[in-house]
Design brief:
By secondary structure, this protein is an alpha+beta fold. It has helices at residues 42-59, 115-119, 121-128, 176-184, 187-192; strands spanning 3-6, 26-30, 33-37, 65-67, 84-87, 103-109, 133-138, 143-147, 155-157, 160-165, 170-175. It has one domain (40-188): tt1808, chain A, CATH 3.90.1570. It is 24% helix and 28% strand. Helix 1 (42-59) runs antiparallel to helix 4. It is globular and about 45 Å long.
Length: 194
């Protein structure tokens, strides 16, 4: 279970250096709150791998899709590590992780310990940072919530996700039904089980 956001002090990115590397946890801070996430479970990691492959195939560039530990600093006193990021241009050592204009899509895969913050503090933060697309992948409900900066409510997608890649002006399509079948198993298999 994840550690809840703390309010006993105002956390800044430099404070995160006190935590050990390699302990499997993800440490983030937004608006002075410390967010600690435990190591992901298998289905979470499998979902990220499948989504990264689908996005890479859709945009045709593996150097634009990243998942894992990569800290993004859209504001001076905040650092976040989204589960998956799609950049407008191929990632390089020169890519500035404090420039949200270079981010095309951020993705968080829900888990029991992160659902509240992914839909709450992180969603509001990403909208405030003007992230063009923020997708919340809900494996249990087999849906994706798509948020854009000015949205009051998400677009809820079950079967298909179509997205225009602003870097190439290409329409990219992800078959969500096939994605959820790959990650979670076919929905009709669960119904057929005795």
């Amino acid at each position: 279970m994840g550690m809840p956001a703390t309010t006993d002090r105002y956390w800044v990115p430099a404070d995160l250096e006190q935590f050990p590397e390699g302990d499997g946890c993800k440490y983030e801070c937004i608006d002075g709150e410390l967010l600690v996430t435990p190591a992901p479970r298998f289905d979470h990691g499998h979902a990220l791998q499948c989504l990264a492959l689908a996005l890479t195939a859709a945009i045709g560039s593996p150097k634009r899709v990243f998942y894992g530990v990569l800290g993004l600093r859209p504001e001076p006193n905040a650092v976040v590590e989204p589960d998956l990021m799609v950049f407008r241009d191929p990632m390089s050592r020169r890519t500035k992780l404090d420039d949200t204009a270079g981010v095309a899509v951020l993705v968080e895969v829900l888990s029991p310990s992160t659902a509240k913050r992914d839909r709450g503090i992180k969603r509001r933060f990403y909208q405030r940072a003007r992230i063009a697309e923020y997708w919340i992948v809900d494996l249990e409900s087999r849906l994706v919530e798509r948020w854009r900066p000015d949205d009051a409510r998400p677009q809820v997608l079950h079967n298909d996700l179509t997205w225009v890649d602003s870097a190439t002006d290409t329409e990219c399509h992800i078959d969500l039904a096939a994605f959820f079948d790959e990650v979670c198993g076919r929905s009709d298999e669960a119904a057929e089980a005795p």
